[in-house]
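Please fill in the sequence for the structure shown.

STRUCTURE ENCODING:
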């Protein structure tokens, strides 16, 4: 949540800060602000989007070679100008991502010392705390480090002070922050995408690092002040990767990037004739050997990917598998088993609950861990024993699409690797699965060609207030993902059920005003699903059925059929989720909602 950009350079940095915020709006967009030093501290804040802040900064002719900027997703305090960052104390300004858990206790102490608070945020505590440290420790770098040592919770912060205009200070603990090493300056941001305009050389700060950025370089210390070196990495991302190009929205772009994202993710098996545990790291055979159970931990869309994988892992690899919501697992007194493989799934690799759940599992002796993630340098990847990087590329739209399908591809590979390791995958079946995986990008491309028909369906959904999604077996989580997408971006209330549960309650909701969307592949549960669909029609419900070759569900009054080009066996969930993504996207377009930035949501959930 929230996005930070800081810069110190030879030239005016205002445009760099604003462009960086635009690239970070997926992290939060209810308010934004910028503070610079130019003969004193100047601050501009606004509610709403970065575009409004940019217009305001232009009207004030803001210019400086050092500054900090922030786009906010509200936690403490409603979205408003007084709660927008940067927050100030005297001539000092702070931007912050995260949540300070002990802010109330610190605030009481600072009030007793005469500090006045004008916002509802926890961030204002940081500004006043650093200012108070400067009274006894005049060095800004040291003052920030000492103040950071008193903070409990998650934070990434950027600090400037008008009495020290030659440098800016940043620090992180539990929230992402990286440095950018440029030709003419130094930068810091929450995400590499914000800095591609000025540099591809980045330094990933570790937990507790405090860094000083100057025109001529930087230095990094640990919380106790000990100097430390961090490696400079050259990002493989290009500026074009985070541009819209020919597309209307990032979500549309990312839906249509799925064939290439899948091809990139599965390139690792493109030339090989077999599945190897080494796909998940050089130590994979050792870590996976003797695994008796699999525990998948994730949130949101990634959780749905885990639910699909449960069907695969148990039916193909014959290994018991459970799936937990990270925010529940980390606070549950569960039974720890050192022979369990703990799989954590996250698009960003910074999801706070998933990261905490991983640490919780490891502290309880469950050290066989695997991270499936889209960001190679993320915290979750660094914390896990094994890792698989989904090569989806940057995902900017808040509603995840290509990250989800590439997670499914990774989980399919894991399923096959476990099955082979435990002698449960014949050579013939291995070859069949590899052929299906290699053909998957082409199969998804064929599904995308159905967009015009899905767009016509979406026209009917715009006036609806509710929708019910049904699926069975491995397609029940796909129904859940379809419902999530629809509610996320169109604000149509949607629920998903295992179709067999229909008569145990949800059927009471069905009438002519409740569209029912069914995922109906030609698998072993199809006949059972057909019976469930008849129950809907008998109550006057209107059906929208995503079938595939061989489903043989006839279209009739009140029954609309969209047939996918082919049935795809185990990998059918990957194909069936794509039309549900398109349905949600086009329904949102008809309703006129903000597709890429739905209300109240943000992309990277780095707070609880």
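FILLED IN BY: designer on duty
SEQUENCE:
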């Amino acid at each position: 949540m929230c996005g930070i950009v800081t810069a110190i350079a030879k030239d005016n940095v205002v445009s760099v800060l604003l462009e960086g915020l635009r690239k970070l709006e997926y992290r939060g967009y209810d308010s934004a602000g910028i503070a610079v030093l130019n003969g004193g501290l100047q601050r501009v804040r606004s509610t709403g989007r970065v575009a409004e802040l940019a217009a305001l900064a232009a009207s004030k002719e803001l210019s400086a070679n050092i500054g900090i900027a922030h786009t906010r997703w509200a936690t403490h305090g409603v979205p408003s100008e007084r709660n927008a960052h940067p927050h100030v104390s005297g001539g000092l300004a702070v931007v912050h991502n995260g949540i300070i858990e002990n802010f109330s206790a610190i605030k009481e102490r600072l009030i007793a010392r005469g500090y006045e608070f004008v916002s509802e945020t926890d961030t204002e505590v940081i500004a006043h705390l650093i200012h108070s440290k400067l009274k006894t420790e005049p060095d800004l770098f040291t003052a920030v480090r000492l103040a950071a040592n008193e903070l409990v919770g998650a934070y990434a912060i950027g600090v400037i002070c008008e009495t020290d205009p030659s440098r800016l200070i940043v620090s992180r603990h539990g929230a992402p922050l990286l440095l950018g090493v440029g030709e003419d300056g130094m930068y810091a941001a929450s995400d590499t995408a914000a800095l591609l305009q000025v540099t591809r050389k980045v330094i990933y700060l570790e937990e507790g690092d405090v860094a000083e950025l100057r025109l001529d370089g930087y230095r990094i210390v640990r919380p106790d002040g000990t100097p430390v070196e961090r490696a400079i990495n050259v990002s493989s991302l290009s500026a074009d990767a985070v541009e819209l190009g020919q597309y209307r929205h990032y979500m549309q772009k990312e839906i249509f990037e799925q064939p290439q994202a899948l091809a990139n993710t599965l390139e690792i098996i493109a030339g090989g004739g077999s599945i190897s545990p080494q796909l998940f790291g050089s130590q994979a055979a050792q870590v996976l050997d003797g695994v008796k159970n699999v525990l998948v931990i994730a949130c949101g869309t990634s959780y749905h990917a885990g639910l699909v994988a449960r069907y695969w892992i148990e039916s193909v690899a014959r290994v018991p598998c459970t799936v937990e919501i990270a925010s529940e697992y980390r606070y549950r007194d569960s039974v720890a088993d050192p022979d369990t493989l703990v799989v954590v799934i996250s698009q960003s690799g910074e999801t706070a609950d998933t990261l905490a759940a991983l640490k919780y599992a490891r502290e309880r002796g469950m050290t066989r861990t695997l991270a499936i993630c889209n960001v190679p340098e993320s915290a979750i990847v660094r914390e896990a024993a094994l890792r698989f990087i989904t090569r989806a590329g940057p995902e900017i739209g808040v509603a995840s699409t290509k990250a989800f399908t590439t997670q499914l591809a990774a989980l399919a590979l894991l399923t096959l690797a476990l099955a082979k390791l435990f002698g449960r995958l014949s050579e013939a079946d291995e070859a069949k699965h590899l052929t299906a995986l290699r053909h998957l990008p082409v199969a998804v491309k064929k599904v995308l060609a159905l967009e015009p028909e899905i767009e016509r369906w979406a026209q009917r959904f715009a006036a609806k207030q509710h929708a019910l999604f049904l699926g069975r077996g491995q397609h029940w989580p796909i129904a859940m993902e379809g419902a999530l997408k629809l509610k996320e971006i169109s604000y149509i209330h949607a629920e998903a059920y295992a179709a067999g549960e229909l008569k145990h309650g949800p059927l009471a909701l069905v009438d002519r005003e409740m569209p029912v969307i069914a995922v109906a592949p030609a698998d072993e549960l199809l006949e059972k699903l057909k019976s469930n669909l008849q129950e809907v029609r008998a109550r006057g419900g209107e059906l929208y059925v995503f079938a595939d070759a061989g489903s043989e569900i006839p279209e009739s009054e009140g029954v609309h059929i969209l047939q996918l080009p082919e049935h795809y066996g185990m990998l059918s969930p990957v194909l069936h989720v794509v039309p549900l993504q398109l349905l949600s996207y086009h329904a949102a377009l008809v309703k006129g909602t903000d597709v890429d930035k739905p209300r109240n949501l943000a992309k990277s959930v780095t707070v609880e």
